[in-house]
Structures are given as structure tokens and as C-alpha cells.
Amino acid sequence: MPSEKSAAPTGEGEVFKAGFVVVDLEAAMRDFSTWLGIEWTPVQQAPLTLDLPTGREEVSLRFVFSTRGPVLLELLEAQPSGYYAAPNGPFLHHVGRWVDDLAEASQRLEAAGLAREAVGVDAEGNTPALFAFHAGHHGLRVELVDNASRESFEGWLAGGTLELG
Known about the structure:
Shape: globular
CATH topology: 2,3-Dihydroxybiphenyl 1,2-Dioxygenase, domain 1
């Protein structure tokens, strides 16, 4: 059995979500609800800036979360091109983990073999901000999410307003 350190190279945080990129958000919500008996948050739309190896990408992302866990489902509406595109149809995009120090956790995950693929950019242009995506072989993509946003996120799940950044 792997040690705790080898099982979680960032050294913190539990997996709290699985994110799917879907082509038709409302149809996916309906079908997932029918198949899994889950309920959704209201649909959100948020501007997002990603820092990619190829440069910056601006998206207006529509998404929802299931309202109960322990592992939440996130549905992200596919974009016509770019990081959230789905040229071959819907797919499991990532699993998400909370982390206390986003920059350090991102560096450690990269050192453990998962290449940094995309990171959030804050209003001042700083990176990584809010999240960092890492991808590697075996089809795994991990989103590290800054624990500083956890209280706001959990408040939104409980019916509050979503505050990003």
C-alpha cells in the first residue's frame, strides 16, 4: 500500500469533485439527474482567464455543481475551441482537490510527474490564482483549488452567491 506521501504528492486536501465537459449543459443536467438522482446549483456563467503554455485564453464558462457529495459533480459547458473544447463529445475533464498553498502544491505535483497544463489568472495578472490544472499519463487531470476559496464555494452550495477570485 502506498504511503500517505506517495498517495498525495501535494501533501494536502481531499478529492472533492469530478468535472465533466459536456456539449449541452441543460441536457446533461437532466440526464445526470435522471440517472443519478442528483440536484444542481443554478447555472452560473463566469469570465475566466487561463494561462496556458501557448498563451492566455479568455472564456465565458457556463457550469453547475451537484448540491451534495461527498464527491461533487461539476458540469462545464464545452467551448467552441481551446482548453474547454470537446471536439470528440463529452468527457471527464478533471478531479479536483483542495490545497492550502496553490503555488507550492502545483510545483510539487509537477515534480511528481503531472505536467502543469493551465492555471487561473487573477485581476492583477498573477498566476497561479484560484486553481491549477495538471495532466499526465493514464488519462488523469487534477485541478488543485486554493483552499482560500473554500468558504465562499461552500456558502454558494448552501444557496449563497458565488464569488470567484
